[in-house]
Design goal:
The complex is a heterodimer of chains A (about 350) and B (about 290). Chain A is mostly helical. Chain A has a single domain (about 50-350), classed as ABC transporter involved in vitamin B12 uptake, BtuC. In chain A, about 70% of the residues lie in helices and about 0% in strands. In chain A, the strands form two sheets. Chain A has a two-stranded antiparallel sheet. A two-stranded antiparallel ribbon of chain A has the order 2-3. The longest helix of chain A is centred in the last third of the chain and has 27 residues, at about 225-250. The radius of gyration of chain A is 21 Å and the shape is globular. Chain B has helices spanning about 1-30, 35-55, 60-80, 90-110, 135-160, 160-170, 175-180, 185-210, 215-220, 225-230, 235-260, 265-280, and strands at about 130, 135. A two-stranded antiparallel ribbon of chain B has the order 1-2. Chain B is mostly helical and about 290 residues long. In chain B, helix 5 runs antiparallel to helix 8 (about 185-210) and helix 11 crosses helix 12. Chain B has one domain: ABC transporter involved in vitamin B12 uptake, BtuC (Orthogonal Bundle). The chains are: A mainly alpha (about 350), B mainly alpha (about 290).
């Protein structure tokens, strides 16, 4: 590739070797952009309020979960309504290992992911025979059964009372501090993003996409369907488990309300609104769905001075609006925010000329 | 105790059968599952309650009015929400109905609040004794209604033109189109009928438990029923309803002391997983053979 002044827009992709063609960041401009974004997130907590940091923390956790679900739904084409329960498996694994077994959080964190992955893989086995609708219902059953187990296995999970864990500490830095947690969550989030981007440059990732596009054709081409479908379920649940473990460390109270079927649906909404089969889409969707209730609340506060009853309606409005947004996105922009953002960029790339 | 559990299971199962009927109707005609079925139930229950209590309309006319509104609502929902998804991937349709469920739940809460509302007593309160078995009359009514609706729908699909047209669409949309059948109209009719059936279920359930938004959870609970019977079989839905109703009551009665309660909630889903592994197309469902 010929050296280029980095601030000039690309007018095309010119690569002279396969290595360049396969590169994740294939232009100097992209490298600078990524470096700038990372730098921005590094210094961000020093310029904003603690409340803002806590919101970003929640978004980071949601991004990890949404990435996992997108691997399964968006890239492998297997529907799951049990993602919330897999997060719960991760969170409860951390809770049980740190309080009952006495492991440190840092040892429990990867184990939480592995535990969730195993549970996810088990519930992924029916996916060989079940397609579409039936699979969705099978994962819904997984959700109900896992939540039931959590509530009723009281000796292990404390039932509906939940588990309280200590904030993990790294040296002298306690994760109870929002800013410390921010760097921890951001690091994991960045790792998750890089891993996901790289996954789809590998054989496994391409096999996932082949399964999505036509699983019988993929099988004909020598892809072991059971292996890759179960692997996709496991991988997706691994991300969910890590996200759940992070949420556990962040909230420090693990209760089953955080992992209900509503949560599963919310994650599905994230990847639909963000964009199915898009890594960036998972990030946009997670941010959007986390910010939506916050915006609604501040809007309600604002209008509360004119309409005193509005706070009363907030929760119902949130539910209704949530449904409405999903429907509108599905009808008008099925490829989600990622596509919307791409369209905007495409428009301004050539603006003011039409082509 | 066994007999009591069995009879309770049968009558509860009849309500499941009613709700599952709505699922099956929609799946049969349009290959789409309606995750908002529970919310249709909720809307039916609320509307009837509202008409009865605030407008002082007697119960039967109120029910008739509710059923008409339910028909309109079903057709409206099909036209506005589901129509754009004809031919779209299955995940979009599933998410659209999930979104619809959320929208309808939110709106009903906005209008009627979240407190449980009670129907004025419509059915006689005193239970009926059959030997040593006790049944409340509401359950008997729902049992009878479920059987009646089953009969009506079986005849409807067999003898009326509309019913035959609906079966044609379910069998092959393109062939139906080429025969001059309006597939869109059939979808609208299907959704209207499904909403109607849900409203009947909602009114019955509202009479049993009172009305609040947890009524909508039944929509999810009935999924195993539809799967067990086979998603595209009407007799399957009815039989599935009875089987799940009986099994969950028996399991609840005998296993609750062992597992510490709540077995009833999870048993249908355990059955669901087993059926899906052994017979994914259910008891009477059509087995689809896939070819490359």
């Amino acid at each position: 590739m010929r050296p280029k002044f980095p601030f000039v827009m690309d007018c095309g992709l010119f690569t002279t070797s396969y290595q360049e063609d396969m590169a994740v960041l294939f232009s100097p401009a992209a490298k600078i952009k990524v470096a700038a974004i990372i730098a921005f997130f590094l210094v961000l907590p020093y310029f904003v309020s603690p409340y803002f940091i806590s919101v970003v923390n929640l978004i980071a956790i949601a991004v990890i979960g949404a990435l996992g679900l997108n691997i399964l739904v968006g890239f492998t084409g297997q529907i799951s309504i049990g993602h919330g329960a897999f997060m719960g498996v991760g969170a409860y694994t951390v809770g049980i290992l740190t309080t009952k077994v006495g492991l440190s959080y840092w040892a429990a964190l990867p184990l939480a992911g592995i535990m969730a992955a195993m549970v996810g893989a088990v519930f992924g086995i029916p996916s060989l025979r079940l397609k579409g609708l039936y699979l969705a219902i099978a994962t819904l059953a997984a959700q109900v059964i896992i939540v039931y187990t959590i509530i009723h296995w009281t000796s292990l999970t404390n039932g509906s009372a939940g588990i309280v864990i200590d904030a993990p500490r790294l040296g002298s830095a306690s994760m109870a501090d929002d800013r410390n947690f921010y760097y921890f969550a951001m690091l994991l989030c960045l790792t998750a993003i890089v891993c996901t981007v790289n996954l789809f440059r590998s054989r496994v990732g391409r096999a996932f996409m082949a399964v999505r596009d036509r699983d019988l054709a993929a099988a004909v081409m020598g892809i072991n369907l059971l292996k890759y479908k179960v692997m996709s379920f496991g991988l997706s649940a691994f991300y969910a488990g890590i996200a759940g473990a992070l949420l556990a460390a962040y909230l420090r109270v693990i209760t089953v309300e955080n992992f209900t079927v509503e949560v599963s649906i919310q994650y599905l909404a994230m990847i639909i609104i963000g964009g199915l089969g898009s890594v960036m889409g998972s990030i946009y969707g997670a941010a959007f769905m986390t910010l939506l209730p916050i915006f609604l609340r501040s809007a309600a506060d604002f209008f509360g001075s004119f309409l005193p009853n509005i706070a009363h309606f907030l929760l119902s409005m949130q539910t209704a609006l949530f449904g409405l947004i999903i429907i509108l996105f599905l009808i008008f922009e099925p490829e989600g925010l990622a596509k919307l953002w791409k369209d905007i960029k495409e428009y301004f790339r050539l603006w003011p000329f039409s082509y | 105790m066994f007999l009591q559990l069995l009879v309770t299971g049968l009558v509860v199962g009849s309500i499941y059968a009613l709700v599952a009927l709505g699922f099956v109707l929609i799946y049969k005609a349009s290959d789409c599952i309606n995750f908002a079925q529970g919310e249709f139930l909720l809307v039916g229950a609320y509307v009837a309650l509202w008409v009865v209590t605030t407008q002082n309309v007697p119960f039967l006319p109120a029910v008739m009015l509710t059923l008409c509104l339910a028909l309109a609502l079903g057709a409206l929902v099909e036209r506005t929400v589901l129509r754009p998804f004809i031919g779209e991937p299955i995940i979009s349709v599933i998410m659209a109905t999930i979104g619809l469920a959320s929208l309808m739940r939110g709106l009903t809460q906005l209008i009627w609040g979240t407190d449980t509302m009670i129907y004025p007593p419509v059915f006689p309160q005193e239970p009926i004794y059959l030997g040593e078995v006790v049944i409340s009359q509401v359950y008997l009514w729902s049992f009878g209604l479920a059987l009646l609706l089953l009969a009506i729908f079986s005849l409807f699909f067999k003898f009326t033109t509309t019913g035959i047209v609906m079966r044609a669409v379910a069998d092959d949309q393109q062939a139906a189109l080429s025969m001059g059948i309006s597939v869109k109209k059939v979808f609208a009719i299907t959704w209207a009928i499904a909403a109607l059936v849900a409203a009947v279920g909602g009114i019955l359930l509202g009479n049993i438990n009172g009305v609040n938004s947890s009524l909508a959870h039944l929509g999810l609970k009935v999924l195993p029923v539809a799967i067990l019977g086979g998603l595209d079989s009407i007799p399957g839905a009815i039989l599935g309803g009875f089987i799940i109703g009986v099994l969950e009551n028996l399991a609840g009665g005998y296993l609750d002391p062992i597992f510490g309660g709540g077995v009833k909630e999870v048993v249908p889903f355990v059955i669901l997983v087993i059926i899906l592994l052994v017979r994914p197309y259910g008891l009477f469902g059509k087995e689809v053979i896939e070819r490359v």
